[in-house]
Amino acid sequence: MARAAGALAALLIVAAGCTGGPEDPVPDDASTIPEMLRALGADPVRQLARGYVPERSGDVVLVPAPGSTVAQWPGGLRSTTDPRTTHGAPWDYIARVPIILRGPGHVPAGAVPDRPVDVADIAPTIADLLAFDWEAPDARSLEEALLPDRDPPRVITLVVHDGGGWNVLERWPEAWPFQRGLAAEGTTFGNATVGSAPPITAPIHANMGTGTYPRTHGIAENTGRLPDGSLGELFFHEADPRLMEAETVADAWDVAQGNEAWVGLVGYEAWHLGMMSRGTRHPGGDRDVAVLWDHRETDDLFTNEEVYRMPEYLRGREALEERVHELDLADGAADRRWMQADLDDIFFIPATPAFVEYQTDLVLEMIEREGIGTDDVTDLLFVELKPSDNAGHLWNMESPMFEEVLRAQDRAVERIVGALDERVGPDRHVVIVSADHGQSPRPDVVEGLRIDRFRVQEALNDAFGAEVVEAVHPDDLYLRWDVLGEIGATAEDVARAAASLRFDQVAPQGTDLEALSEELAAARPFAAAIPVRRLVGLSEEEVAALGAGAFPEADLTSPPDLARLLRR
């Protein structure tokens, strides 16, 4: 994945050398859309096409070159060594994730199938475990992980490490010993991806729950174009799943059982709801349990009471503070510090082991008090461990702080599996462990580039001499179609201009541009920028014909070295 910044430019079609302006916003040497599609290759383009949702997705897909990242925080990226990164690109280090199933009597031990699969296949696998006749629109069951002549388990648990893809497990191989043991006891799919792009939280969780991709389930991004034309969260701030257009396997199962199944989730924010259910928004559905965290206003537990329910006995901020106090004392000093984090600042808490322990406490209390697994109707438990994603964004996957969070989440899986083993028996429940994406390393570690999204917007609007770009996100940009019409420009023009931007035009504010080498200043940090409408009509034959692409990171079919990773 590492490459010199100058080589980033060389791998693209032509190096930069022109300056454009209102009279010539698209440089003469700008790559064409077909050239950029071929540079991306079949695997990334296929995932991008699956991820497009008309009227909700951005108008131009942005693909940073491997190792580079588009920062999203307003006023927040002010250094070329800022550790924060995003993960909107469809490269292998972000798209590859583990899928581990463990369940004695249900799942064979020690199997490592090598066929390509993705997380959408989890939903039909759950249906098969339930012996439930339910068809997933875009996926097939992970049948290699299912033993014949099995009875349905009492409980099926899906645990998702947010941002816990293979590249972080490879980076910190000693941080997940319990899950390595689960792999030995069960079946591990190493050749698995998230299935669609952008590889970010909300759409990938919906892939897991619905057995389909954003083009069908409708959750294109964490944020996108809302029905009123504004840009905002697709689950809104109220944890409302009204825009999710496909049923989940839990939706269908619960209704088929007359809502007698227990269905519930412990997560962090509304973006995780897609892997569980639509609650009362599903025809015939009831108020499934959804335990979330309000990180915008109250910094406490919350749920949408109209759609879901939250057990009243669960303790909120006060119980979290007890775990924070334990973390504070872990280094022997009561100084309200954990490594580099200020524990008096609630902003940092959800990126620490204390929050992992707190979330796990909630899960264990519900296992005990909700009667999970105590009758003949299989219950469905969903657990979303957000701290790994928060830690990755704040401190990066290269940080020892991230490693400690990963260790805490491994202990969380151990505690949850242990509680279910004790309560219902190890041969009467199945646990599935996966992730919604990997992490982007620090660009300075892999010789990539940092891109300031606000400077991207400024540079493009300056180039066209008009406000043609409404907003830039880490993986796409939204256009003002009325302005484009007025000046006679197209989405393709904007895409080609975006892909031609130089690093000195989009570098973080505060970068000493005069200190940049000529080669680095002229490097083009985007591998491609594709109008989404060009993705819609691509047939599978046309996608396959794109081939391997110009970047090694475009190969999404080569699994990690599982023999090495799993034998520790």
Mean pLDDT over the full residue set: 92
Assembly status: single chain
Helix content: 25-40%
Query: Separation of termini?
Result: 25 Å
Tally of strands: 20
Task: Please tell me about this protein's structure.
With 568 residues, the chain is of the alpha/beta class. It is built from 23 helices and 20 strands. An eight-stranded mixed beta sheet has the order 6-3-16-5-15-10-11-12, sandwiched between helices. A four-stranded antiparallel beta sheet has the order 18-19-1-20. A two-stranded parallel ribbon has the order 2-17. Helix 11 packs across helix 12 and helix 12 (353-369) packs parallel to helix 14 (400-424). The protein is globular and about 70 Å long.
Question: How would the blueprint of this fold be written?
Answer:
Elements: H1 5-11, H2 33-40, H3 42-50, E1 60-64, E2 69-71, H4 92-95, E3 99-102, E4 117-118, H5 122-129, E5 155-161, H6 166-171, H7 177-185, E6 187-189, E7 192-193, H8 201-210, H9 214-217, E8 223-225, E9 231-233, H10 249-256, E10 263-266, E11 289-294, E12 300-302, H11 317-329, E13 337-338, E14 341-342, H12 353-369, E15 379-385, H13 387-395, H14 400-424, E16 429-435, H15 443-446, E17 450-452, H16 453-464, E18 469-472, E19 476-479, H17 481-487, H18 491-499, H19 503-506, H20 518-522, E20 526-531, H21 533-536, H22 540-544, H23 562-566
Parallel strand pairs: 2-17, 4-7, 5-15, 5-16, 10-11, 10-15
Antiparallel strand pairs: 1-19, 1-20, 3-6, 3-16, 8-9, 11-12, 13-14, 18-19
Helix pairs in contact: 11-12, 12-14, 13-14
